[in-house]
Every structure is written in structure tokens, then in C-alpha cells.
């Protein structure tokens, strides 16, 4: 792989993305280097500064300000209504809450489909106003011109193929790449985004065997969500992973905590203290 010049090499180069104890902010070059070392890495979504600071201190090397903020954070039915103004505000908060993680801002539906120039205008807002280190957009072959112009303009791009939720009205939430023809299309999409210059690609809800093949064929890292164990990285929506989202979870979610019950129980305890007159106590009062 590419050798870094002395000027590009920094004290943190070559450290593990997770557990590497690096102090400067992670760059897309570090992500590329991790695949060359065969290292797997975790990505979580984040939508606010406070949550992002928790994950940053936990050593999560890459955070995605996902347009899943639409359904997880803003109360929409899907990601479709999310606006670029909303993504800019949430992305800026996540950047402010973090010191080390690479922050990737999701381009929302309608902010890049018109063409490369619109994509560049939208991505530029996330880079200049929010300070993200990279952007993500959905689509393989269909988005390759957008990816090319962003990369030419100096904006690193994470691509996203397989299930692309912004197209829910056209494709539903269904497994992608099943069957020979669909598998060949997914491989073409993966190669198209790599050729266009994407530094990584999300594979969402595709058969594990196909995701493994894409991961072997590509030199850029694959980030799986519902794509089996062989991808270079894994991403989960943070509110799913911590049991906060509520409702029926997709099969690919592993729940590492149940914040919904922790928070609900705490809220009830507070309410009972207030109603019963046991909060505040003397130690919570000033005189
Ligand atoms: N909370 C949340 N978690 C996510 O992972 C997520 C979002 N929101 N919003 C944006 C997209 C939409 N995603 C989705 C949405 C639904 C399914 C789903 O219904 N999957 C089912 C059926 C799949 C099938 O068999 O075809 C599953 O059980 O996995 C999967 C991914 C993933 N992303
Ligand atoms: C599920 C991930 C990849 C995403 O695009 C999001 O959270 O918006
Ligand atoms: Mg998204």
C-alpha cells in the first residue's frame, strides 16, 4: 500500500484504530491502513455531542451522523424527510463532542440525487459548517459521478450499497443481493464506488457470503450492517445497540444494554420522590 512521506507520517500512524491510544483525530488514511493490516473496526452512529463524547472516550474510532437520526432522534417515520439543515446541525454537535473519532456525515435524501454539483454543494456545507471529515451517500453505479466529483474536490466519501433506506418507497426494507443477478449487480456497485474513489463502503442487509466476497475483491474497507461477520468493519445504530429505540429490532441488531428500561425506571423514581415529598432532601437545598 501507499507509503506515507515523512511529512505525512505522524506519531499516531500505524496505531490500531480501536485500543491504539492515539491522540490526534483519525483520518481516512488511517482507515485505509487498517485494512492493509487486516484489522477490524467498529463504527456507531451518533446524533448529539453528549452521546458522541461517551463513544469517543470509549475509543470508537469512527462515528456516523446517520440520517437514521430521522427515525431515531427526530420522530420521523423514516430517513426520507430529513433535511440538510438538520444533518448540518446534528453533525456540528457530534464534531464538537469528539476529539479523536473520524466523523462521517450522512447526506440526506434529496441533497445529492440531482447530480454531482448538488452533491458537492451539500457535502461542502457538512465539511465547512459542521466540520465533518467525510460524507456518506447511498447508491453504487447510480451515484458514481457524485462520488467522483466530491473526491476530486477533496471530500472523502463513504459509499453505501445493498439496502439503501432513502429508497424505501421504491425497494422496501428487504435483503439485497439474493440470487445470481442481484449478486452481480451488488458486485458491480461495489467496484463502481471503489473506482469512483470512495474510501470505504457500507454493505447493508446483504447475504453474508456475498458480503465476504465483496470484502475480498475490494481494496477499500467494507462496513457491514446485517452483512455477516466477514466485513472489515461493523456499524450499528447507537439507539438500537443500547436498547433505546423501542419496538421490533431488525435481526442484525445485538442489544448491549437496555437504556430504555434504565431511563424509564429512573424517571419513575424521580416522579415518585416528587409526588411523595422525598425529593429534594436537605443536601439538595440552599439556604
Ligand atoms: N433504528 C434504526 N436502525 C437501523 O438499523 C436503521 C434505521 N433505524 N433507519 C435507517 C436504516 C433502515 N434500516 C433497516 C430498516 C428495517 C429493516 C428490516 O425491517 N429488516 C428486517 C427484514 C429484512 C428481510 O428479511 O428482508 C429484519 O428482520 O432484518 C432493516 C434495516 C437500517 N437503518
Ligand atoms: C445504518 C447506517 C449505515 C446509516 O446509514 C444510518 O444510520 O443512517
Ligand atoms: Mg443513513
UniProtKB/TrEMBL annotation:
Mg(2+) binds at residues 67, 106, 138. One of its GO terms (biological process) is pantothenate biosynthetic process. It is an enzyme of class 2 (transferase). The gene is panB. Pfam families: Pantoate_transf. Its cofactor is Mg(2+). It catalyses: (6R)-5,10-methylene-5,6,7,8-tetrahydrofolate + 3-methyl-2-oxobutanoate + H2O = 2-dehydropantoate + (6S)-5,6,7,8-tetrahydrofolate. 3-methyl-2-oxobutanoate binds at residues 67-68, 106, 136. It is found in: Cytoplasm. This is 3-methyl-2-oxobutanoate hydroxymethyltransferase. One of its GO terms (cellular component) is cytoplasm. Its EC number is 2.1.2.11. PANTHER family: 3-METHYL-2-OXOBUTANOATE HYDROXYMETHYLTRANSFERASE (PTHR20881). Catalyzes the reversible reaction in which hydroxymethyl group from 5,10-methylenetetrahydrofolate is transferred onto alpha-ketoisovalerate to form ketopantoate. Its main location: cytoplasm. Pathway: Cofactor biosynthesis; (R)-pantothenate biosynthesis; (R)-pantoate from 3-methyl-2-oxobutanoate: step 1/2. Belongs to the PanB family. It comes from the Bacteria. InterPro entries: Pantoate_hydroxy_MeTrfase, Pyrv/PenolPyrv_kinase-like_dom, Pyrv_kinase-like_dom_sf. CDD domains: KPHMT-like. It comes from Streptomyces montanus. The keyword Signal does not apply. Binds 1 Mg(2+) ion per subunit. Keywords: Cytoplasm, Magnesium, Metal-binding, Methyltransferase, Pantothenate biosynthesis, Transferase. The active site is at residue 204. NCBIfam families: panB (TIGR00222), PRK00311.1 (NF001452). Homodecamer; pentamer of dimers.
